Amino acid sequence: MRRALYAGTFDPVTNGHLDVLRRACELFDEVIMAAAPNREKHPLLPVEQRAQLIEENLAGIPNARVAILSGLTVDFARKMGAQTIVRGLRAISDFEFEFQLAQMNRDLAPEIETIFLMPKQEHFYTSSSLVKAVAQYDPARTRKFVPANALAALQEALGS
């Protein structure tokens, strides 16, 4: 079985994240979308809620499942039996960080390959950070960037 791990903070999950997931599911027998705690990014939503939001959006994607990432991504990939790590790449500005991350992962686990997938053009500029910034002032304006459940979670978290 060709299994891939698509890990990220997903705070919140966006339509761009889900687009990358769908693309990965066309390439692999199974894709595990793993929400990472990532204390460095100071997530707005708890990791368990982020995983639940992802889970609620997996209807119609039979070869996708959700998990909560623990430890290093490459170690988690091994534990889950994934041979590939999927990373979303939106713009050239993402590339330098993603390239460094892929090289570190290759050094730590040479048997696990990293691939980069781009979302549809309409999602190139969408990031969870930008969505949260807009949502602080007007959550309804984030409607086209996130699934409905993520919008509701943002509104609740921000007290809107």
From TrEMBL:
<feature type="binding site">
    <location>
        <begin position="9"/>
        <end position="10"/>
    </location>
    <ligand>
        <name>ATP</name>
    </ligand>
</feature>
<keyword id="KW-0963">Cytoplasm</keyword>
<comment type="subunit">
    <text>Homohexamer.</text>
</comment>
<feature type="binding site">
    <location>
        <position position="87"/>
    </location>
    <ligand>
        <name>substrate</name>
    </ligand>
</feature>
<feature type="domain" description="Cytidyltransferase-like">
    <location>
        <begin position="5"/>
        <end position="133"/>
    </location>
</feature>
<feature type="binding site">
    <location>
        <position position="9"/>
    </location>
    <ligand>
        <name>substrate</name>
    </ligand>
</feature>
<protein>
    <recommendedName>
        <fullName>Phosphopantetheine adenylyltransferase</fullName>
        <ecNumber>2.7.7.3</ecNumber>
    </recommendedName>
</protein>
<keyword id="KW-0547">Nucleotide-binding</keyword>
<dbReference type="GO" id="GO:0015937">
    <property type="term" value="P:coenzyme A biosynthetic process"/>
</dbReference>
<dbReference type="GO" id="GO:0005524">
    <property type="term" value="F:ATP binding"/>
</dbReference>
<dbReference type="InterPro" id="IPR014729">
    <property type="entry name" value="Rossmann-like_a/b/a_fold"/>
</dbReference>
<dbReference type="InterPro" id="IPR001980">
    <property type="entry name" value="PPAT"/>
</dbReference>
<feature type="binding site">
    <location>
        <begin position="123"/>
        <end position="129"/>
    </location>
    <ligand>
        <name>ATP</name>
    </ligand>
</feature>
<comment type="similarity">
    <text>Belongs to the bacterial CoaD family.</text>
</comment>
<keyword id="KW-0548">Nucleotidyltransferase</keyword>
<dbReference type="GO" id="GO:0004595">
    <property type="term" value="F:pantetheine-phosphate adenylyltransferase activity"/>
</dbReference>
<comment type="function">
    <text>Reversibly transfers an adenylyl group from ATP to 4'-phosphopantetheine, yielding dephospho-CoA (dPCoA) and pyrophosphate.</text>
</comment>
<feature type="binding site">
    <location>
        <begin position="88"/>
        <end position="90"/>
    </location>
    <ligand>
        <name>ATP</name>
    </ligand>
</feature>
<keyword id="KW-0460">Magnesium</keyword>
<keyword id="KW-0067">ATP-binding</keyword>
<feature type="binding site">
    <location>
        <position position="17"/>
    </location>
    <ligand>
        <name>ATP</name>
    </ligand>
</feature>
<feature type="binding site">
    <location>
        <position position="98"/>
    </location>
    <ligand>
        <name>ATP</name>
    </ligand>
</feature>
<dbReference type="InterPro" id="IPR004821">
    <property type="entry name" value="Cyt_trans-like"/>
</dbReference>
<feature type="binding site">
    <location>
        <position position="41"/>
    </location>
    <ligand>
        <name>substrate</name>
    </ligand>
</feature>
<feature type="binding site">
    <location>
        <position position="73"/>
    </location>
    <ligand>
        <name>substrate</name>
    </ligand>
</feature>
<feature type="site" description="Transition state stabilizer">
    <location>
        <position position="17"/>
    </location>
</feature>
<keyword id="KW-0173">Coenzyme A biosynthesis</keyword>
<dbReference type="Pfam" id="PF01467">
    <property type="entry name" value="CTP_transf_like"/>
</dbReference>
<dbReference type="GO" id="GO:0005737">
    <property type="term" value="C:cytoplasm"/>
</dbReference>
<comment type="pathway">
    <text>Cofactor biosynthesis; coenzyme A biosynthesis; CoA from (R)-pantothenate: step 4/5.</text>
</comment>
<keyword id="KW-0808">Transferase</keyword>
